[in-house]
Amino acid sequence: MLRNASHKSTRHVHVLDLIAPSAFAHRPASTLSRPVMITQPSAANDRKKFPARPASSQANDPAVLCQNIKDQISLLRNRGPAIPDPDVLFFNQQVVELRQALSARDIHRAWKHWFQLQERGLLGLFGPQLRGYSESLAKLCPQSSEAWNPADRKVIEEIALHSATAGAVDALVACMATYLRSGDSKAALDLYARLLQVSEGKDLSTQSLTPASEEDAEVDELVMDDSHPRSSAHPKVLLAAITAHALENSFPAALRAYLQSPIRFPQHLMKEFLLTLHDKSLNVKVEDYVRRLHVARYVSEPRFLTARISAFATSRDSQGLEKLYRSLIDGISGSEPYIAASPADVTVEQPVALEEINWAAFLTAFLRCNRRDLAEALWNDMVRFRVRPTVITWTALLDGYDAMGEVEDAEKAWNTMLAVGVEPTAMSYRAIISTMFDARKSDEAVKYFALFQARLTNGMTPTSEHSLTLYNTVIHGLLKNRREGDAHALLQRLREKGPKPDIISFNTLLHYHGCRGDFRTISLVLEWIREDGLVGDVYTFSTVLSALLKIGRTDATDAVLNLMRKQSIEPNVAVFTAIINHQMEGGTEPGLRAAMELLQKMEQNAEAQPNEVTYTGILASLHRHDWPDLTLARQCKQYVLERMKKRNIQPNRATYHILIKACLENPAPEGMEDALRYYRDMAKRKISIGPDTWYVLLRGLIAREAWAVADELVDDLTRERTLYGALESF
């Protein structure tokens, strides 16, 4: 790897009771006279309140009602004069006629009423009813455009486009699908372009129409929609456009369209849409396009991609990590490249580029997963693509060797980095120092620390954040190597000369002395925290709690809560939950008892009632660990489940995933039994069992080498659905 190192390379406002006057008698008088408080944003974005409409003998007068409502509409929309009476009545009459025409599948009559509304500028008054119109029009689109009457097509397209600008896209998608089935990609893309043109500044990425009740759907026809301007297409419409580009064999055009919108396609949406096209070869091509588009989206958001890489490394999922990396390399050097190896290589055909932080993240992740082969392949790829590693990549390499405990390799990398003229940063020093401390080579670590301090005197100016991170690493390393005197001396120097230690610095000392039951020193550290004007965090208080439990304090939880209050911290749900989770992580009986005591205190505190997150975290920890006292653990599980039931807290899909994963991480036989019980419970409660559920189950079973059970689940899966996505790798 190192031998090539020197290579350069709307608000939505429902308006009540606005229908034809003849219909007023069908609504209860109490509804008509109910006071309404309307608010309107002022120029300064304040909300100005208008007086409630008074109930009076005139309240049932249709003319009065219409005028009141129109005045309120005018105030809301800030568009000057109220809507004239004739327009109000005309709109509602035409809406009724339009609905009847669509129900009768009479396109020409529907167009007559639509056109009349358009002529009088009243189309903007439509609201949720557009959904129903769009759905009705979608059913009128033929299978093939050859069988489409040109006049009918024009009517459907016009109404479909207007409906789509308000989020009701069924008709537009059906129109585009008709063209796609006929191989007319140009017509489909023309429709897409027209939509973008007429909807410029609007957000079409989700259904933006306000849902109406059954009564509203029948009576309240006038609904205002003043959506804030945005710009993106609805997923279904964008998918249809991507399919049209696939018909034209133009992936670059599909990529440009996709990157202009912030949305992703859910797998089920893609499957459902492609089934309507009845073209297997096109389906395969579109699925390939979408897969590559998703990869491009990752690359276009470097921080998101880095987080994804780190998640794979944290879970030690080298298979998923490799698959992601291979997809990126294919995007750089495959038969149809669409990813640039670096920002300097961006072209029209390769509009997205891998940032160096992404190369570096992969490098560290591969080494953390003990995949030296992949790390070496990555380094060679960087050389092949003329991506010259800077200090960012070298630091990532050092971090990777630190994670592996490879001291000699770290030293070689350090020396090579210096030899090729790369100046180390504070984070580079942090990585090599951490490696030495972790290998119990504290003298070597201190030497590197001295080099860093010498660099500081010679003009090196790292950020205070990076410097403090390095100092905290040194404090931790000194304590780990039982050099607590040096650690305390360094902390005092930082307190006096800077950079000022943060709460992490003090927490490091608290943890060290807490593990030894040295509460006298803990008290001293807490006093330093107070003197420096810092406030403890969740880790601080949980560490103190663990230390109190270690020395046998029966009032440990009360003592910690009092300490928090002294620092003006009133424990809320989030704080309680975090401390409970931290206590549960250790898998010790004292920690479990303390966590359950805190839970009971939460239940008695009206201001910090436990929620689903609290109970799920406790249950997950109870399942994850193989507790020495199984009876106590089972009692705690039963207590939590009973409390959830009493509080009507039902596990949802995400909760089940957390619990199943935790169960399968428990090596004891009951871990698998509990996981399967939760799986059956999901089925019994008719909770959707999707690809992510199967992934959690199968990944956990394979990690346990429970092949027979995994095979049974695969049989269940294949009976229910087709494998796709991450499941295909199983």
TrEMBL record:
Keyword annotations for this protein, in alphabetical order, are: Repeat
| Stored InterPro entries | PPR/CCM1_RNA-binding (IPR051222), PPR_rpt (IPR002885), TPR-like_helical_dom_sf (IPR011990)
Q: Where are the annotated PPR repeats, by residue?
A: 355-389, 390-424, 467-501, 537-571
Keyword Repeat assigned to the entry: answer is yes
**Pfam families for this protein:** PPR_2 (PF13041), PPR_3 (PF13812)
Q: Which PROSITE patterns match?
A: PPR (PS51375)
Q: Which NCBIfam families match?
A: PPR (TIGR00756)
What is this protein called in UniProt? Mitochondrial group I intron splicing factor CCM1
Task: Give the species this sequence originates from.
Answer: Paxillus rubicundulus Ve08.2h10
